Q: What sequence folds into this?
């Protein structure tokens, strides 16, 4: 699977897909990837990280995305969409502009479970604690987004509950200080994700998969935080709600996080633990530092995970999957575009 990767490439501030998104996503389908997951796509406008992120909060977004999903399918792959809300990490400039909080004129009010802002080094940007009415609206936004995404031709929906964005902010005691039914113990902090999952599952066809991306750990071992044990328990709860695969990433909730390693397969150990220790037989995808065909192949073949999810290597090499098939002597199992027969 091509890991979801924000392109920050909408031309207006309208969240509409552009020629860049089309070229970028369709190229990976031509390159042989089995599943092309689009970037974090905002279910409401204030859920964008930057003004240039993709959105799916209106019917206009469906039209812009439909051509892209058709291309991905025509080129032999499966189109997936990551449904997202950035929470208190919204309203920023693009990474290549510094990822700084936007000034009053360009930015917008961010929302989160509690009113603790993201600790920017330079300044404090307030965030507003969501009311239960906001939460009800948010769940409906995810439901409507899933309906639109299916209409646009996507066949896998992934709920983004990782990397310190809104849903993760509810899951983690680092960012959730609520004292209502959406905060407190594990069951209450996971309630929002369970309700969003239920809403998405209700409108997403039973035969089409739903994935959830989580941060398996906050990487804050010295504080009361989200850890792998919580993730194992969550995986079982999500399996019961009809989730097909847990996409296992990590971190992003706080700048003090201590990342133990960023080497090859650096998050694979969390995927493996969830696969081994969860009681359900939910499928598990591993992401992070997978850069070679042998690594991806061994992950699945040795049962440490069910899906190899590859991000940056797909940016370096859009034909990574075809190259991998060639290296692993499995070209008979992939669809090579006839135009490229002489190269493989
Ligand atoms: C990302 N990542 C990411 N993750 C996610 O869940 N939604 C997203 O939209 C993005 N956006 C994004 C943009 C870019 C340019 C990069 C490099 C990364 C994280 C990504 O999906 C992946 O989890 C990490 O990059 C680790 O995997 P690799 O790159 O080591 O294979």
A:
């Amino acid at each position: 699977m091509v890991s979801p990767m924000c392109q920050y490439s909408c031309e207006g501030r309208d969240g509409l897909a552009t020629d860049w998104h089309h070229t970028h996503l369709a190229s990976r389908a031509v390159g042989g990837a089995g599943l092309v997951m689009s970037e974090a796509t905002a279910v409401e406008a204030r859920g964008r990280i930057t003004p240039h992120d993709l959105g799916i909060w209106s019917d206009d977004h469906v039209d812009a995305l439909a051509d892209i999903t058709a291309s991905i399918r025509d080129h032999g792959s499966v189109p997936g969409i990551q449904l997202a809300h950035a929470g208190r990490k919204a309203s920023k400039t693009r990474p290549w502009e510094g990822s700084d909080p936007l000034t009053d004129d360009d930015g917008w009010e961010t929302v989160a479970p509690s009113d603790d802002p993201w600790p920017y080094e330079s300044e404090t940007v307030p965030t507003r604690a969501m009311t239960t009415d906001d939460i009800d609206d948010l769940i409906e936004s995810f439901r409507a987004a899933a309906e639109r995404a299916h209409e646009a031709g996507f066949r896998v929906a992934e709920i983004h509950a990782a990397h310190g964005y809104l849903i993760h902010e509810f899951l983690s005691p680092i960012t959730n200080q609520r004292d209502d039914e959406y905060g407190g113990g594990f069951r209450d902090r996971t309630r929002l994700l369970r309700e969003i999952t239920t809403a998405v599952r209700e409108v997403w066809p039973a035969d089409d998969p739903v994935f959830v991306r989580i941060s398996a750990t906050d990487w804050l071992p010295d504080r009361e935080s989200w850890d792998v044990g919580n993730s194992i328990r969550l995986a079982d709860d999500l399996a019961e709600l009809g989730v097909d695969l847990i996409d296992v990433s990590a971190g992003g909730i706080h700048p003090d996080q201590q990342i133990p390693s960023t080497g090859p397969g650096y998050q694979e150990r969390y995927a493996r633990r969830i696969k081994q220790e969860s009681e359900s037989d939910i499928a598990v995808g591993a992401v992070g530092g997978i850069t070679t065909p042998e690594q991806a192949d061994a992950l699945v073949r040795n049962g440490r995970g069910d899906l190899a999810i590859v991000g940056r290597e797909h940016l370096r090499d859009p034909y990574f999957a075809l190259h991998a098939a060639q290296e692993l002597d499995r070209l008979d199992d992939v669809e090579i575009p006839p135009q490229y027969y002489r190269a493989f």
